[in-house]
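Revision sheet: C-alpha cells.
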Amino acid sequence: MDLLEGIKGNKFVVFGRAGMDMFADPVGTKSEFADTFKSDLGGSSANICVGLCKLGSQASLVTSVSDDAVGRFCINKLKHYGVGTEYVRAVAGEFRTSLAIYESCITDFQNVIYRNGAADFEVKPSEMDKVDYSRFSALITAGTVFAGQPSRDATFRAFQNARGAGIPVIFDIDYRPYSWPSAEVASEVLSRAGEESDMIVGNDEEFGFMAGDFKKGLNKARDLASSGNRLIIYKMGEEGAITLYNNEEIRTSIFPTTAVKPNGAGDSFMAGLLSSIAAGFDLKTSVIRGSACASIVVSLPGCAPAMPREEQLNEFIKNNPMKEV
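Predicted:
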C-alpha cells in the first residue's frame, strides 16, 4: 500500500508507551510548591492516539502497562478518549507504568519522569504476531520503544509484519537520551528504524544525532528522503519545518502562541498531520494543520486533555496568523 494511501485509510495501529501525567495546578505553579496536581494520560504514543481520535481518526495502542492501579488508570483513560486497547497487556511483578510530573510553567520548566523498570519495555516479539494488521491502514511508532528490550525486537518484528500486510510504517524519532543505555546504541538503532520506515518525523537535533553530527541533520533527512522515496518532516522549532517528498522540499512556518509548557507538541503535530492527510488536505496544508495542533497543545495544561478536536483546530487557524517564513 502506498504511504499516502495508507494514511488516508485513517486506521492506525500505534506502538509505544502510555503513562500517567501529573501536572501542577494552577498554571504557573512550580512542582515543588504545588498543593494540587491534576492527573491524566501521557506518554508519546498514547498522546498520538488521543490526538488522532479527537480529530476523527481510528487508533489502537500496542503496549504493556503495570498490573496495578496506575496501569488501570491509563487503560481507562485510553478508553475515555476512544483509543483501542485490545492490544494493551498488563504485566505483573516489579514493572511499572511511566509517571511524569511537570508544571505549566515555561520558565525553568521541569519534567520529572520515573521510568525505572518501565512496563512498556516488556512488549514481546511474540505479541506482535497476535496483532491483526489487516484491520489497519498504517503503523506508527515513537522512538522510545527502541530504547529497551524486548520492546526493541518486538517493534522491529511489527515492522516486518506490517510490510507483510502491505501497510506503511511511520516513525517519530522521539529521541530521549535518558531512556537509552548509550548514545552509540541509540544512533545505531534509530538509524535502522529510519531505514525501515516509509515516513520519518523528527526535529533538527534528532536528525543530526542520527547523522552523527548536529550540523548534518538536514543532509541526513535529504538522504533518507531520496533513498526509498520516503516522506520526511524535518522540524526546526520556531523556524518551522521542511517537508521532503518526491524530490520536492516544502517550507512551512509556525503559529506563534503563548506557551505554558513545551511537552506534547510533537505528539499533537503528528496527530494533526496524519488526520489532515486522511481528511484529504494536501501535504503542505496538512503540515500547517499539524503545526497549529502543536501550538494549541503547548498553550494549555496537560498533554492528552490539551489535544484539540476538529472545531477547535479550525477556529485556531482562523484566528491566528502564521509566522512569516
